[in-house]
Design goal:
The complex is a heterodimer of chains A (525) and B (267). Chain A is of the alpha+beta class. In chain A, the strands form four sheets. In chain A, strands 2-3-19-20-1-21 form a six-stranded antiparallel sheet. In chain A, strands 4, 9, 10, 11, 17 and 18 form a six-stranded antiparallel sheet that branches. The longest helix of chain A has 30 residues. Chain A is elongated and about 120 Å long. The relative contact order of chain A is 0.15. Chain B is mainly alpha-helical and 267 residues long. Helices cover 73% and strands 0% of the residues of chain B. In chain B, helix 5 runs antiparallel to helix 6. The longest helix of chain B has 34 residues. Chain B is flat and about 55 Å long. Classes of the chains: A alpha+beta (525), B mainly alpha (267). Chains A and B meet through helix 3, strand 7, strand 10, strand 18 and helix 12 of A and helix 6 and helix 7 of B.
Chain lengths: 525, 267
């Protein structure tokens, strides 16, 4: 029997990796490593281990990890928590800032490279196999394929190869297969496939994953965020980061359930661009304000003091809210404070004024009665304040040539500001990743070949022309090449049996007696 | 409504206990009738648990996904629902003892937790909550079934026990469960990212619970790649499924020791 069509039994094997398999060139070895699924599995396992370590071992906050001095100071915490030698071992392995370390980022980079190389390597082969599948397969495929079935119908049944082929087409068509009939000499055959575009899901998924990682890098490079942006009620603050924006907090409100848990926090914000109002919104924890990609999130809140300062001539030199957002502890006391500066000489402020209040109303503070603030005024290059003064609300004090007035208590809105130009890419990439996964697993490519041969009756011996149709046995064979897919193995079995059922029915109609089909189902892969 | 929720929970708990005994009797005592009984009780338990969670939803005005009791109940619900899907699809009761065992353990755990109905704190006031945690319910339920199938696969080596489902069926169920769980886990992570972007302006913050869920997803990715590798399919992939469920439990109970941004959903 002549072999026709393809030379490869397994159409999906990428030709590139085969061609390179024998080479020992460094580039080729690297290429083969990066295309290896086992290597990718190892990388994912290493990344998972790293992530797990980052979950189990306490992590320094990103701003602490970024500065060597604050990180060195922060290391006291793990020492207290884990004790020696564990604290030092974790430190040596750089486990306190896993997600920022070179080795973790390196693993992500190598995985990305591996996914890209795998995709580039497999894409041409898969596209070819989807667009121009191997329709005509050699007969030996039906003897060797991992999934195969064989039925034979006796000459008495009056079945022809063409009839068997038509029944197969009927059954497979009902099962939503695309069908390409072909002939090989006297044999009638069918190529059938389904969900051929599902195969592209793997690209969609992997491109999605790579794009997420790429977008994360882009967002890190071109975006910015600020976590502790405090705006007292009634005050306006510049956003900075190269923008011409400023933001004003009109009002902050916090509400609680009777149990004391938070019910609602909200700030009414106004955004100005070059001094012009461009946006206004009441923001909540789950409802930020977005202006041109710059997002203002309600994050926290705290006390603020409205201060007014006049100079010796009686002119107002400072009139603004001061967010008391710093926690100051020491001497068994816990206080909140914030500062502002006055004057300017040689580019440096002449005075730095700290405004301090007790952290909690419930904890009395001997130096700062309720309704008062304490001023601590520093002169340039002085470690200790030149003046400390308690100032009740509505009163004024003359200090260091200025008149200080504590106008009233207010609150500040603690905002998180963020700008990420790559965020939409993230969402598209996530959608691609999930849709790709669903396509691959729920619409898997199914492909099989059916072949019906008319075999001359064994007793009559071989016949070059092919015996008369009604005198030949029909041998019906079905084969599929699969990647150890149990679900397909099960469906293959079902399809093969229903093709046989249809052919057998036809045979019994022809002969008036039940056909003697002999099913031979191959063992599962 | 709150009362109804408590009673329905208690009834579901008892019913599932009976179902578990039925499945055990079916498997160990080889009683077919016990299996039928177990299935009926499991359906009833699922209905009662649905009623309990639904009543909580009505009583509190928010999805029952905000404290550990509610989440443990939902986890059990997801496991029972996924199990019943596979039992129906494969007409197979031999996995019941293992899968319903996991669900029952989760209900025992839930019953030790305070079952009060809390108002929704500010940070959780977002409709993404419903689908974010809903994805977790689906994925954790399916991971639990994959675990049950993998454990039985490892026990029933070379199909030595006729009273357990055959290995190829268990392998297939494990795979199908992961096909459900893997995209659901991805949705869980993505919806978490969408929410974090809304609430804090960052889609990813290496929060401990977030990273633990990522580890789970990564292990599932390893499983899916390993299945296509020669020499990995079978025993090794089953061990991966066991590890995967370990990661799920680690994430689930992480509230106790991980801290981070998900602690508000603690006790």
């Amino acid at each position: 029997m002549a072999e026709v069509g393809a030379t490869s039994l397994v159409p999906d094997v990428p030709s590139i990796s085969k061609a390179r398999a024998g080479s020992t060139d460094l580039f080729d070895r690297l290429w083969r490593l990066l295309t290896s699924v086992r290597f990718a599995m190892l990388l994912i396992a290493l990344i998972a281990t790293g992530v797990l370590a980052g979950t189990l071992v306490m992590q320094a906050p990103p701003d602490v990890a970024a500065s060597p001095t604050s990180f060195a100071g922060w290391l006291a915490r793990p020492r207290a928590k884990y004790g020696e030698p564990w604290a030092s071992i974790f430190g040596a392995l750089d486990l306190y800032r896993v997600f920022g370390t070179l080795w973790f980022r390196g693993l992500l980079a190598v995985l990305t490279l591996s996914v890209v190389v795998c995709t580039v390597n497999r894409m041409p082969g898969i596209i070819t196999s989807v667009r121009r599948p191997v329709v005509r397969v050699p007969e030996r495929l039906f003897e060797r394929a991992p999934l195969r079935a064989e039925f034979s119908y006796p000459a008495a049944s009056g079945i022809s190869a063409e009839q068997a082929q038509l029944q197969a087409i009927k059954v497979l068509g009902t099962a939503r297969f695309r069908l390409i009939p072909w002939e090989d000499g006297a044999a009638r055959a069918v190529f059938a496939d389904r969900n051929r575009f599902g195969k592209y899901g793997t690209f969609l998924n992997h491109i999605g994953i790579v794009s997420i990682l790429g977008a994360a890098v882009l967002g890190g490079a071109f975006g910015w965020r600020e976590d502790g942006f405090m705006v007292p009620e009634g005050s306006t603050r510049p956003v900075g980061h190269g923008t011409s924006l400023s933001v004003r907090s009109e009002e902050f409100v916090d509400e609680y359930y009777p149990s004391g848990t938070a019910k609602d926090f909200r700030s009414e914000l106004v955004v100005f661009d070059d001094g012009q109002e461009v946006a206004r919104k009441i923001i909540r924890v789950n409802d930020p304000l977005d202006y041109g990609g710059v997002r203002f999130h309600q994050a926290f809140f705290g006390p603020a003091a409205m201060m007014r300062v006049r100079n010796a001539e009686g002119k107002v030199v400072f009139e603004d809210g001061v967010a008391l957002g710093y926690e100051l502890t020491g001497g068994g006391l816990s206080r909140n404070g914030g500062f502002f500066t006055l004057g300017k000489r040689n580019g440096l402020p002449t005075l730095a004024v700290w405004v301090v209040v007790p952290a909690s109303q419930r904890q009395p503070d001997a130096d700062i009665p309720a309704g008062s603030v304490r001023l601590e005024i520093f002169e340039p290059r002085q470690a200790r304040p030149s003046v400390m003064e308690t100032l009740p609300q509505g009163e004024t004090r003359e200090l260091l040539g200025h008149t200080f007035e504590f106008v009233r208590e207010r609150q500040f809105s603690g905002l998180q500001l963020s700008y990420n130009p790559a965020i939409n890419l993230i969402w598209f990439a996530c959608a691609a990743m999930v849709l790709g996964t669903i396509a691959v697993f729920n619409f898997p490519l199914r492909r099989l070949w059916v072949r019906a041969d008319e075999v001359p009756n064994e007793r009559s011996g071989p016949n070059e022309q092919g015996a008369g149709v009604s005198y030949a046995n029909v041998r019906l064979r079905i084969a599929a090449v699969t990647n150890r897919d149990v679900l397909f193995a099960r469906e293959f079995e079902k399809l093969a049996l229903s093709i046989d059922k249809e052919v057998s029915r036809l045979a019994s109609d022809n002969a008036g007696t039940p056909a003697q089909a002999v099913p031979v189902l191959a063992a599962k892969a | 409504m709150a009362e109804l929720s408590y009673y329905a929970f208690a009834a579901s708990f008892i019913t599932l206990g009976v179902a578990l005994l039925g499945y055990l009797w079916f498997t160990l005592g080889r009683q077919k009738g016990a299996g039928r009984l177990a299935t009926v009780f499991t359906y009833n338990s699922a209905a009662l648990l649905t009623a309990s969670l639904g009543a909580r939803w009505v009583a509190s005005g928010h999805a029952p996904y905000t404290n550990q009791f509610e989440f443990a109940s939902s986890f059990a619900w997801g496991t029972i629902a996924t199990y019943l899907y596979f039992e129906g699809k494969y007409r197979l009761k031999g996995m019941g003892a293992a899968a319903i065992g996991v669900a029952f353990a989760m209900l025992i755990y839930a019953s030790t937790l305070p079952a009060r109905i809390d108002p929704l704190i500010a940070a959780l006031q977002n409709d993404i909550l419903i689908i974010h945690v809903g994805s977790a319910v689906i994925s954790y339920g399916a991971f639990a079934c994959a675990f049950a199938a993998a454990a039985l696969y490892l026990i029933n080596r070379e199909d030595r026990y006729a009273w357990l489902p055959p290995q190829d069926v268990l392998d297939e169920i494990g795979y199908k469960a992961i096909i459900i769980a893997f995209p659901a886990q991805a949705m869980l992570l993505i919806l978490g990212a969408v929410w974090a972007h809304t609430a804090w302006g960052r889609y990813w913050g290496w929060d401990p619970k977030e990273t633990a869920a990522l580890v789970t997803w990564l292990i599932a990715a390893i499983y899916l790649h390993a299945r296509a590798q020669r020499g990995w399919h079978g025993t090794r992939t089953s061990w991966i499924l066991i590890a995967l469920f370990g990661a799920v439990l680690f994430t689930f109970f992480g509230n106790y020791f991980l801290g981070g941004l998900h602690t508000y959903s603690g006790l």
